[in-house]
């Protein structure tokens, strides 16, 4: 599907707030791609579709993952919201006709991150965190400007703040997020 067609469909699939966030991520990802000499088109498609499976109930997410033989980890079972990344990559391919494996991978990796993320993966992960409609995260201004200079440094700061947030709130921590943090910590230290 063409980008404008996808936008139209997503406007119906997502609630208003999620749709606004989606456009914010798409344009922020485009700007980050420009700053880091990455492919702007890929960044826009991945940003546009990253949350395409978000506005589905947890029960239905689990059901759809079983139906499409998508593996469900222990932490995803406890916290099915995490599955919107894997399910989103599946929808992007099957419903929105995206065949670019790098775009699909960036969608899949956007929630937990993963070690050895490539430039596009990092751009989407970071755009999701810093897009203009986000307001509450600590150090947001610092991380926003950092993102346009050094993707790895921005990743490490976002992951550190995310771990801290989950610790405080007692939220479900996917082991992959911890591994991703360790990876970037090792890379930068
Ligand atoms: Fe998401
Ligand atoms: Fe998002």
For the record, what CATH class applies?
Mainly Alpha
Overall outline:
globular
The secondary structure category is mainly alpha
CATH superfamily: Hypothetical protein af1432
Oligomer type: single chain
At CATH's second level, what is the architecture? Answer: Orthogonal Bundle
CATH topology type: Hypothetical protein af1432
* Mean of residue pLDDT values: 97
- Topology, number of strands: 0
Write up this protein.
The protein is mainly α and 189 residues long. It has one domain: Hypothetical protein af1432 (Orthogonal Bundle), CATH 1.10.3210.10. Helices cover 68% and strands 0% of the residues. The protein contains eleven helices and no strands. The protein has helices spanning 3-13, 16-35, 40-49, 58-67, 74-78, 84-94, 101-108, 119-130, 140-147, 151-169, 175-188. Helix 3 crosses helix 8 (119-130) and helix 8 (119-130) packs across helix 10 (151-169). The longest helix has 20 residues, at 16-35. The model has no long low-confidence stretch (mean pLDDT 97). It binds fe (iii) ion (2 copies). One fe (iii) ion binds at residues 21, 25, 50-51, 128.
């Amino acid at each position: 599907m063409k980008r404008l067609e996808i936008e139209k469909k997503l406007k119906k699939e997502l609630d208003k707030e999620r749709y606004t966030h989606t456009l914010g991520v798409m344009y922020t990802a485009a700007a980050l791609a420009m700053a880091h000499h990455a492919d702007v088109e890929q960044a826009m498609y991945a940003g546009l579709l990253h949350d395409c499976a978000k506005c589905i109930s947890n029960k239905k997410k689990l059901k759809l993952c079983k139906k499409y033989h998508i593996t469900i980890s222990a932490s995803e079972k406890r916290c099915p919201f995490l599955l919107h990344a894997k399910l989103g990559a599946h929808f992007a391919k099957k419903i929105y006709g995206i065949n670019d494996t790098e775009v699909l991978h960036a969608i899949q990796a956007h929630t937990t991150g993963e070690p050895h993320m490539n430039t596009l993966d990092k751009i989407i992960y970071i755009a999701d965190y810093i897009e203009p409609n986000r307001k509450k995260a600590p150090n947001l201004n610092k991380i926003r400007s950092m993102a346009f200079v050094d993707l790895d440094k921005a990743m490490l700061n976002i992951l550190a703040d995310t771990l801290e947030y989950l610790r405080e709130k007692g939220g479900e921590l996917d082991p992959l997020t911890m591994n991703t943090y360790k990876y970037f910590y090792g890379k930068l230290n």
